[in-house]
Design brief:
With 303 residues, the chain is of the alpha+beta class. It has three domains: 81-175; 177-265, no CATH class; 266-303. It is 68% helix and 11% strand. The protein has helices at 2-105, 108-127, 138-149, 158-174, 230-233, 236-241, 257-264, 268-302; strands at residues 178-186, 192-200, 204-207, 210-215, 220-223. The chain has a five-stranded mixed barrel.
Length: 303
């Protein structure tokens, strides 16, 4: 019993000691926290006081900057008003000059209309002409010139009018010539290569003994998948290799229509193949009849 009482007393003493130690630690932490808060408030107050002094010291400078900005704003507003007034004056001047310009043009408007129409028509004709292969850059000039003539505030220069005249005259001259030059050609297999081609006026283009077809949409020369009979192509070499004189050669005045029909017409062997069995029987009978006729002719002549 006495030992139990001793143990309880010892435990009570330990608990009291721990409680006193914790209370002391808590008191120390709160004191330090209070000191830190007080120190922070003092430092913040000093910083605020310093910023306030700085602001008061720079107040005069801020006022000066504000006044300068207001003065600049007023100056810009005055300048804007002056520029708006000048813009209205310039706009009225432009309208007046435009009216005077239109009055001075007078009959030239009709001339520009004629030039626009002539350049547009020429461009359409040139794009479908065989000479386009040899002179491809002229259509770009005609397109730009026609657009320029369509604008009421653009004038044609002497050089542009002379260029239009030159292109029209060159087209008429070249359509009466046989000209040889190098151009891109697509053969029957689809391969494209540079070849020496010969243009026969505005009718046909030939190369390496074959007729070529001009495709206006692409501006290219394409070898025909099938060539006409040899009686038409046999003279091409004489024309290409000749230097002067006259050479008979087949041309297509319809610019490809007759040539396409001629190419589509079947040859003798194709016509025989189209007859099939009946055709072969007729041919055999014809040959047999011809042999009999020759034999009878020989017999009668011997008598």
């Amino acid at each position: 019993m006495i030992s139990i009482i001793k143990k309880i007393g010892f435990a009570s003493i330990l608990v009291m000691g721990v409680s006193l130690s914790a209370q002391a630690a808590t008191d120390i932490s709160l004191d330090e926290l209070l000191k830190q808060v007080k120190s922070g408030r003092v430092s913040d107050a000093k910083a605020n006081e310093a910023r306030l002094k700085q602001f008061r010291a720079n107040r005069s400078q801020q006022v000066a900057k504000l006044n300068a900005e207001k003065a600049e704003q007023k100056r810009q507003e005055t300048k804007s008003s002056q520029m708006e007034a000048q813009f209205e004056v310039n706009d009225a001047r432009i309208i007046e000059l435009e009216r005077a310009f239109q009055e001075r043009l007078g009959g030239l408007k009709e001339l520009f209309g004629v030039l626009q129409q002539a350049s547009g028509d020429a461009r359409g004709q040139f794009e479908n002409s065989l000479t386009q292969v040899q002179f491809p850059d002229r259509t770009d000039f005609l397109l730009k010139f026609a657009k320029k003539m369509g604008q009421s505030n653009k004038l044609a220069s002497i050089e542009e009018i002379e260029r239009l005249w030159f292109e029209l005259q060159r087209e008429m001259t070249e359509t009466g010539k046989v000209s040889t030059f190098t151009s891109s050609v697509v053969d029957a297999s689809g391969e494209e290569s540079q070849r020496e081609v010969t243009r026969i006026g505005a009718f046909n283009v030939v190369s390496e003994g074959k007729y070529l077809e001009f495709i206006p949409e692409t501006g290219r020369l394409v070898e025909l998948q099938r060539q006409p009979a040899s009686r038409y192509t046999g003279r091409i070499g004489d024309l290409v290799n000749g230097t002067s004189g006259q050479f008979p050669i087949g041309i297509d005045p319809t610019r490809g229509q007759l040539l396409s029909l001629l190419v589509q017409s079947p040859s003798l062997m194709e016509r025989v193949a189209q007859g099939k069995v009946v055709g072969y029987v007729i041919i055999v009978l014809g040959i047999f009849g011809l042999i009999i006729a020759i034999w009878r002719l020989l017999v009668l002549s011997a008598v």
